[in-house]
Amino acid sequence: METISQSELLNIAVEKFSQLPGIGKKTALRLVLDILKRDENFVFSFAQSITNLKENIKYCKHCGNLSDQEVCPICQNTSRDQTTICIVENIRDVMAIEQAQRYQGVYHVLGGLISPIDGIGPNDLNIAQLIERIETGQVSEIIFALSANMEGDTTCFYLSKILKGRDIKISTIARGVAFGGDLEFTDEVTLIRSIENRQPYNG
Amino acid sequence: METISQSELLNIAVEKFSQLPGIGKKTALRLVLDILKRDENFVFSFAQSITNLKENIKYCKHCGNLSDQEVCPICQNTSRDQTTICIVENIRDVMAIEQAQRYQGVYHVLGGLISPIDGIGPNDLNIAQLIERIETGQVSEIIFALSANMEGDTTCFYLSKILKGRDIKISTIARGVAFGGDLEFTDEVTLIRSIENRQPYNG
């Protein structure tokens, strides 16, 4: 280990911090020296909050979202439409959609996308759990909210084959020019697709 | 607390991280999600390293430097010149000088500079301990390595008055144009002072 300080404990803390993404040795040292100056209360609750991430955060047994309980607050929430499932790649996507505070259904977090190049197949994803939810017969609509790339398309295709023949409405989120987006700064593929998929104008 | 995720524990960890300097909410979330993916080993030793900062790091009772023991490795090191004390503002300065691996004396960390504007007087600094070290009669040279600003100058002046009348050599680190530094990019004060304080040329 590089010698930064005469305190080996400080060097270890710097080393740990610098293993986090985007944190170099200098930033790590700055953070550690800042923590040194904090009161005990902050330092211990900070360390505890990190331990909690590993010890006490669970994945919701229904949807795979992060949760402090066995079942996440969204799946527990009876005022949400539990029959509409929005399928997303990861928990960041749930956060993004929840941030908008409009979607009233529930989620299913796949934990990745099918990607033969990276060796990720359907069995590596949280798909068995999705099928289990569908088998209950209480799902009326599935919305695919996956990335518009090869992996996303492959995953949509795979899942739609599984869902075929069931009485479930399947949809995918709309693609097109972003609201407030400038046409001239929109990429060509999005632009052409948004023309092809034009919608009736309801004035 | 802002709702970022359905996991309150995750939100707390993000909140704690975002209290560190230069870490915003988005960066904090990125760090926390990264930690979530790490193995237990890393997470627990990371949390422990933070707790250690508060529980087990001490300040050397001689020089005020950070140390895992009562006396820091530099003050314990008998192969270093224990009669030459370099006076610095803080532990970062010790790190900087030690990084250069040339200075063979020891240090004294003041923990700040005298600054009437900020309400910092001599009693707020680690000066009593310095006097105690000097009274042992085992100090032959004091080197001021303080910032070249009003606070640094005030502190130098104050300490030099205390040291007056003792058989101790007092010096201050050289100021001037940096080695490898371009004259044209050196600030005016440094440039003029470096001409005034010119040294005999030894070819």
What this model shows, in words?
2 copies of one chain form a homodimer. In chain A, strand 3, helix 5 and strand 4 form a beta-alpha-beta unit. Chain A is built from 8 helices and 6 strands, in the order αααββαβαβαβαβα. The termini of chain A are far apart. The first copy, chain A, has 203 residues and is α/β, with parallel strands linked by helices. In chain A, helix 1 packs across helix 2. The interface between A and B is large, with 57 and 57 residues.
Distance between the termini of chain A: 66 Å
- Most extensive interface, chain pair and sizes: A-B, 57 and 57 residues
Uncertain ranges of chain A = none
Strand tally of chain A: 6
Query: How large, in whole angstroms, is the Cα Rg of chain A?
Result: 22 Å
